[in-house]
Amino acid sequence: MGELLDDLDAVGGSFDLDGLKKKHRRQDATSKPRNTLAAIEREILEEIASQSGRYGDRLDVLLRDMATLRQTIEPAITQWQQAGVSDADACQALNAGIAQYNQLRTQAQRVQHYLIIHREAMGFWNHDDVFRFYPIPAALTLLPPTHTPGPPEHP
């Protein structure tokens, strides 16, 4: 408060807001350049960490979707195998589910790769935690197409 009164006295009792701002800007700029740079660097690292968190969240969702889909595919495969190989519609539906599962797996691998890139940007070079916390299961193999014997061809 005393400094403000000195500023008022220096300008003859009138308040010069622009002059006061310029004075304090010059003082801040000359006295704390390293603190300003450190604040900017910290803000950049916080944004990188935030983006890494978003990649982790996205990876969680993809892995959860894969697990849910796999829980429906595996019993259906067992049921299809017990029913016999002749049900072409069931085979086609299962292959569509397997293809969707494998597509989710590809997306999860891509997001995991982006997460690793962001971790490296932050200076983390060991990614064992990423592979342990976000394990991506193996791809599923498409079922072989069913062959239903048709009438013999005549020569």
Provide an overview of this structure.
With 155 residues, this protein is mainly alpha-helical. It has a domain at 48-133. The protein contains five helices and no strands.
Oligomeric organization of the protein chains:
single chain
Percentage of helical residues? over 70%
Topology pattern, helix = H, strand = E: HHHHH
Strand segment tally: 0
Can you give the mean pLDDT? Answer: 79
Question: What percent strand?
Answer: under 5%
In terms of structural class, how would the helical and strand content be classed? mainly alpha
Q: What is the global morphology?
A: rod-shaped
Question: Unreliable stretches, pLDDT < 50, 5 or more residues?
Answer: none
Q: N-to-C terminal Cα separation, in Å?
A: 109 Å
Radius of gyration: 32 Å
Question: Describe the biggest sheet?
Answer: none
How many helices? The count is 5
SSE blueprint and pairings:
Layout: H1 2-10, H2 17-31, H3 33-83, H4 88-121, H5 128-133
Structural key phrases:
mainly alpha, 0% strand
Summarize the structure.
The chain has a domain at 48-133.
